[in-house]
Amino acid sequence: MKNHIANLNNLKHELFPKLKKSILQEAIQGKLVPQIEEEGTAQELLEQIKTEKEKLVKEGKLKKSALTDSIIYKSDDNKYFEKIGKTVIDVTDEIPFEIPVTWQWVRTKDIFQINPKNIAEDNCISAFIPMEKICATYGSEFSYDKVQWKTIKTGYTHFADGDVAFAKITPCFQNRKSAIFHNLPNGIGAGTTELKVLRQFGETINRWYLLFFLESPYFIDEATFKGTANQQRITSGYLENKLFPLPPLQEQNRIENHIKAIASIMKG
Asked: Which residue ranges does UniProt annotate as crossing the membrane (predicted)?
Protein backbone atom coordinates (compact mmCIF):
# COMPACT_ATOMS: atom_id res chain seq x y z
CA MET A 1 0.00 0.00 0.00
CA LYS A 2 2.82 2.38 0.92
CA ASN A 3 4.57 1.63 -2.38
CA HIS A 4 1.32 2.28 -4.25
CA ILE A 5 0.90 5.68 -2.57
CA ALA A 6 4.55 6.51 -3.21
CA ASN A 7 4.16 5.62 -6.89
CA LEU A 8 1.05 7.81 -7.15
CA ASN A 9 2.88 10.71 -5.54
CA ASN A 10 5.83 10.29 -7.89
CA LEU A 11 3.48 10.20 -10.87
CA LYS A 12 1.74 13.31 -9.60
CA HIS A 13 5.05 15.17 -9.25
CA GLU A 14 6.04 14.15 -12.79
CA LEU A 15 2.72 15.01 -14.42
CA PHE A 16 1.92 18.27 -12.64
CA PRO A 17 4.71 20.37 -14.24
CA LYS A 18 3.92 18.96 -17.70
CA LEU A 19 0.21 19.64 -17.33
CA LYS A 20 0.87 23.12 -15.95
CA LYS A 21 3.05 23.96 -18.95
CA SER A 22 0.31 22.80 -21.30
CA ILE A 23 -2.36 24.74 -19.41
CA LEU A 24 -0.31 27.95 -19.41
CA GLN A 25 0.32 27.64 -23.14
CA GLU A 26 -3.40 27.11 -23.80
CA ALA A 27 -4.15 30.14 -21.63
CA ILE A 28 -1.93 32.60 -23.51
CA GLN A 29 -3.24 31.34 -26.85
CA GLY A 30 -6.83 32.11 -25.88
CA LYS A 31 -7.88 28.46 -25.76
CA LEU A 32 -8.44 27.98 -22.03
CA VAL A 33 -11.59 30.03 -21.50
CA PRO A 34 -14.23 31.18 -24.02
CA GLN A 35 -14.28 34.71 -25.37
CA ILE A 36 -17.26 36.83 -24.30
CA GLU A 37 -18.27 39.65 -26.64
CA GLU A 38 -19.54 41.86 -23.81
CA GLU A 39 -16.05 41.98 -22.29
CA GLY A 40 -14.82 44.20 -25.09
CA THR A 41 -11.46 44.04 -26.83
CA ALA A 42 -7.79 44.38 -26.00
CA GLN A 43 -7.71 47.47 -28.21
CA GLU A 44 -9.89 49.26 -25.65
CA LEU A 45 -7.44 48.17 -22.96
CA LEU A 46 -4.53 49.63 -24.95
CA GLU A 47 -6.33 52.98 -25.00
CA GLN A 48 -6.47 52.85 -21.18
CA ILE A 49 -2.76 52.06 -21.04
CA LYS A 50 -2.03 54.99 -23.36
CA THR A 51 -4.03 57.31 -21.09
CA GLU A 52 -2.09 56.09 -18.03
CA LYS A 53 1.22 56.66 -19.81
CA GLU A 54 0.24 60.17 -20.89
CA LYS A 55 -0.65 60.95 -17.27
CA LEU A 56 2.79 59.78 -16.07
CA VAL A 57 4.52 61.83 -18.77
CA LYS A 58 2.67 64.97 -17.64
CA GLU A 59 3.72 64.25 -14.05
CA GLY A 60 7.35 63.89 -15.13
CA LYS A 61 7.46 60.24 -14.07
CA LEU A 62 7.85 58.80 -17.57
CA LYS A 63 9.86 59.87 -20.61
CA LYS A 64 7.88 61.20 -23.56
CA SER A 65 9.54 58.61 -25.80
CA ALA A 66 7.48 55.95 -23.99
CA LEU A 67 4.43 57.21 -25.88
CA THR A 68 5.88 55.99 -29.19
CA ASP A 69 4.22 52.59 -29.19
CA SER A 70 4.11 50.13 -32.04
CA ILE A 71 0.82 49.02 -33.57
CA ILE A 72 0.62 45.40 -34.73
CA TYR A 73 -2.22 44.50 -37.07
CA LYS A 74 -3.35 41.80 -39.47
CA SER A 75 -3.94 42.80 -43.08
CA ASP A 76 -6.57 41.47 -45.48
CA ASP A 77 -4.03 39.02 -46.94
CA ASN A 78 -3.49 37.52 -43.44
CA LYS A 79 -0.05 39.04 -43.04
CA TYR A 80 0.97 40.85 -39.87
CA PHE A 81 2.50 44.32 -39.91
CA GLU A 82 3.98 46.56 -37.24
CA LYS A 83 3.69 50.33 -37.50
CA ILE A 84 6.03 52.58 -35.50
CA GLY A 85 5.47 56.21 -36.38
CA LYS A 86 5.46 56.32 -40.18
CA THR A 87 7.47 53.11 -40.57
CA VAL A 88 5.63 49.88 -41.40
CA ILE A 89 7.36 46.48 -41.47
CA ASP A 90 6.19 42.93 -42.12
CA VAL A 91 6.36 40.92 -38.87
CA THR A 92 4.45 37.85 -40.06
CA ASP A 93 7.40 35.56 -39.35
CA GLU A 94 7.49 36.77 -35.73
CA ILE A 95 3.90 35.79 -34.93
CA PRO A 96 4.18 32.51 -32.95
CA PHE A 97 0.52 31.48 -33.01
CA GLU A 98 -2.97 32.76 -33.75
CA ILE A 99 -4.94 34.51 -31.00
CA PRO A 100 -8.66 35.42 -30.72
CA VAL A 101 -9.84 38.45 -32.71
CA THR A 102 -10.62 40.28 -29.46
CA TRP A 103 -6.96 39.98 -28.38
CA GLN A 104 -4.01 42.08 -29.52
CA TRP A 105 -0.32 41.40 -30.12
CA VAL A 106 1.84 44.03 -28.40
CA ARG A 107 5.51 44.46 -27.51
CA THR A 108 6.04 43.83 -23.81
CA LYS A 109 7.97 47.09 -23.43
CA ASP A 110 4.93 49.05 -24.65
CA ILE A 111 2.58 47.93 -21.87
CA PHE A 112 4.93 47.64 -18.88
CA GLN A 113 7.63 49.66 -17.19
CA ILE A 114 10.76 47.48 -17.10
CA ASN A 115 12.95 47.69 -13.98
CA PRO A 116 11.39 50.89 -12.56
CA LYS A 117 13.06 52.76 -9.69
CA ASN A 118 11.80 53.51 -6.18
CA ILE A 119 12.19 56.78 -4.29
CA ALA A 120 12.18 56.56 -0.48
CA GLU A 121 13.76 58.01 2.65
CA ASP A 122 17.04 56.40 3.72
CA ASN A 123 15.62 55.15 7.03
CA CYS A 124 12.51 53.64 5.42
CA ILE A 125 12.15 49.95 6.36
CA SER A 126 12.06 47.92 3.14
CA ALA A 127 12.23 44.35 1.86
CA PHE A 128 15.52 42.79 0.77
CA ILE A 129 15.05 39.73 -1.44
CA PRO A 130 18.10 37.77 -2.65
CA MET A 131 17.55 35.03 -5.24
CA GLU A 132 17.36 32.23 -2.66
CA LYS A 133 14.25 33.82 -1.14
CA ILE A 134 12.27 33.42 -4.38
CA CYS A 135 10.80 29.94 -4.83
CA ALA A 136 11.21 27.97 -8.04
CA THR A 137 7.54 27.07 -8.44
CA TYR A 138 4.57 27.65 -10.70
CA GLY A 139 3.27 30.33 -8.40
CA SER A 140 4.37 33.38 -6.47
CA GLU A 141 6.19 32.39 -3.30
CA PHE A 142 8.89 34.53 -1.72
CA SER A 143 10.20 35.78 1.61
CA TYR A 144 12.30 38.78 2.61
CA ASP A 145 14.51 40.42 5.21
CA LYS A 146 13.64 43.82 6.66
CA VAL A 147 16.37 46.41 6.13
CA GLN A 148 16.73 50.19 5.88
CA TRP A 149 16.33 51.52 2.35
CA LYS A 150 19.75 53.23 2.41
CA THR A 151 21.46 49.81 2.60
CA ILE A 152 19.88 48.51 -0.61
CA LYS A 153 18.93 51.55 -2.71
CA THR A 154 22.07 51.25 -4.86
CA GLY A 155 23.54 48.14 -6.42
CA TYR A 156 20.27 46.19 -6.37
CA THR A 157 17.13 45.81 -8.47
CA HIS A 158 14.17 47.86 -7.22
CA PHE A 159 10.56 46.66 -6.97
CA ALA A 160 7.32 47.55 -5.21
CA ASP A 161 3.97 46.06 -4.26
CA GLY A 162 2.19 44.85 -7.38
CA ASP A 163 5.34 44.40 -9.47
CA VAL A 164 5.97 41.07 -11.18
CA ALA A 165 9.54 39.78 -11.40
CA PHE A 166 11.43 36.80 -12.78
CA ALA A 167 15.01 35.52 -12.71
CA LYS A 168 16.95 36.33 -15.88
CA ILE A 169 19.87 33.95 -15.21
CA THR A 170 20.13 30.19 -15.80
CA PRO A 171 19.05 27.81 -14.34
CA CYS A 172 16.76 30.02 -12.21
CA PHE A 173 15.07 31.26 -15.39
CA GLN A 174 14.16 27.75 -16.58
CA ASN A 175 13.15 26.77 -13.03
CA ARG A 176 10.63 29.62 -13.15
CA LYS A 177 11.85 31.63 -10.19
CA SER A 178 9.26 34.40 -10.33
CA ALA A 179 6.90 36.30 -8.07
CA ILE A 180 4.18 38.90 -7.70
CA PHE A 181 5.49 41.14 -4.94
CA HIS A 182 2.95 42.11 -2.29
CA ASN A 183 2.75 43.18 1.36
CA LEU A 184 6.31 44.48 1.34
CA PRO A 185 7.36 46.73 4.25
CA ASN A 186 6.23 50.23 3.24
CA GLY A 187 5.38 48.75 -0.15
CA ILE A 188 8.93 48.70 -1.53
CA GLY A 189 12.01 46.54 -1.76
CA ALA A 190 15.17 45.68 -3.65
CA GLY A 191 17.07 42.51 -4.33
CA THR A 192 19.25 40.47 -6.61
CA THR A 193 20.41 42.16 -9.79
CA GLU A 194 19.50 38.95 -11.63
CA LEU A 195 15.82 39.97 -11.67
CA LYS A 196 13.75 41.56 -14.39
CA VAL A 197 10.85 43.58 -12.95
CA LEU A 198 7.64 44.55 -14.74
CA ARG A 199 5.24 47.23 -13.53
CA GLN A 200 1.90 47.82 -15.22
CA PHE A 201 0.42 51.21 -16.09
CA GLY A 202 -2.50 51.68 -13.71
CA GLU A 203 -4.70 48.63 -13.15
CA THR A 204 -4.70 47.46 -16.75
CA ILE A 205 -3.10 44.00 -16.63
CA ASN A 206 -3.97 41.08 -14.38
CA ARG A 207 -0.73 40.31 -12.53
CA TRP A 208 -1.41 36.57 -12.50
CA TYR A 209 -1.96 36.55 -16.25
CA LEU A 210 1.41 38.29 -16.63
CA LEU A 211 3.02 35.70 -14.35
CA PHE A 212 1.45 32.87 -16.38
CA PHE A 213 2.90 34.45 -19.53
CA LEU A 214 6.38 34.63 -17.96
CA GLU A 215 6.15 30.98 -16.88
CA SER A 216 4.72 29.70 -20.19
CA PRO A 217 6.68 27.50 -22.63
CA TYR A 218 6.34 30.31 -25.20
CA PHE A 219 8.37 32.67 -23.00
CA ILE A 220 10.75 30.17 -21.36
CA ASP A 221 11.56 27.82 -24.23
CA GLU A 222 12.15 30.49 -26.88
CA ALA A 223 14.58 32.55 -24.81
CA THR A 224 18.06 33.25 -26.12
CA PHE A 225 21.05 33.57 -23.79
CA LYS A 226 24.45 35.19 -23.57
CA GLY A 227 27.40 34.48 -21.30
CA THR A 228 29.54 31.60 -20.09
CA ALA A 229 28.12 28.11 -19.60
CA ASN A 230 27.61 28.61 -15.86
CA GLN A 231 26.45 32.25 -15.99
CA GLN A 232 24.05 32.67 -18.88
CA ARG A 233 21.44 35.43 -18.93
CA ILE A 234 18.61 36.16 -21.33
CA THR A 235 19.85 38.40 -24.10
CA SER A 236 19.28 42.14 -23.88
CA GLY A 237 15.95 43.05 -25.44
CA TYR A 238 14.43 39.56 -25.25
CA LEU A 239 11.83 40.58 -22.67
CA GLU A 240 11.31 44.09 -24.00
CA ASN A 241 10.65 43.02 -27.60
CA LYS A 242 8.80 39.79 -26.85
CA LEU A 243 5.35 39.69 -28.40
CA PHE A 244 2.73 39.66 -25.65
CA PRO A 245 -0.72 38.15 -26.35
CA LEU A 246 -3.06 40.65 -24.68
CA PRO A 247 -6.67 39.68 -23.87
CA PRO A 248 -9.40 42.00 -22.52
CA LEU A 249 -8.97 42.54 -18.75
CA GLN A 250 -12.08 40.59 -17.73
CA GLU A 251 -10.89 37.61 -19.74
CA GLN A 252 -7.50 37.85 -18.02
CA ASN A 253 -9.33 37.64 -14.70
CA ARG A 254 -11.25 34.55 -15.84
CA ILE A 255 -8.01 32.91 -16.99
CA GLU A 256 -6.51 33.50 -13.53
CA ASN A 257 -9.52 31.97 -11.78
CA HIS A 258 -9.63 29.00 -14.15
CA ILE A 259 -5.94 28.13 -13.76
CA LYS A 260 -6.10 28.47 -9.98
CA ALA A 261 -9.14 26.17 -9.89
CA ILE A 262 -7.33 23.57 -12.01
CA ALA A 263 -4.19 23.84 -9.86
CA SER A 264 -6.26 23.30 -6.72
CA ILE A 265 -7.78 20.12 -8.16
CA MET A 266 -4.41 18.82 -9.35
CA LYS A 267 -2.83 19.36 -5.94
CA GLY A 268 -5.82 17.55 -4.45
From this structure: none
> With contact defined as beta carbons under 8 Å apart, do 106 and 200 qualify?
no
Q: Which residues pair with 127 in a beta bridge?
A: 146, 189
To which H or E segment does residue 171 belong?
Answer: none
110 near 240, Cβ under 8 Å?
A: no
Task: Identify whether the C-beta of residue 82 lies closer than 8 Å to the C-beta of residue 89.
Answer: yes
Q: Where are the beta strands (DSSP E) in the chain?
A: 71-74, 80-84, 87-90, 104-107, 112-114, 125-129, 145-148, 157-160, 164-167, 178-180, 188-191, 195-200, 225-228, 231-234, 243-246
Domain ranges of the chain: 2-107, 114-244
The mean of the pLDDT values for the chain is 92
Going by their DSSP bridges, the two strands 188-191 and 71-74 should be labelled as: unpaired
- Answer yes or no: are the C-beta atoms of 185 and 125 closer than 8 Å: yes
Please name every residue paired with 125 in a beta bridge, in sequence order, or none if there are none: 148
Annotation: CATH topology of 114-244? Adenine-n6-DNA-methyltransferase TaqI; Chain A, domain 2 (3.90.220)
Is the whole-model pTM more than 0.85? yes
Q: Is the pLDDT of residue 12 over 70?
A: no
- Band of the pLDDT at 266, cuts 50, 70, 90? confident
Interval 212-222: pLDDT, tens: 999 999 999 99
- Say how far apart CA 77 and CA 21 lie, in whole Å: 33
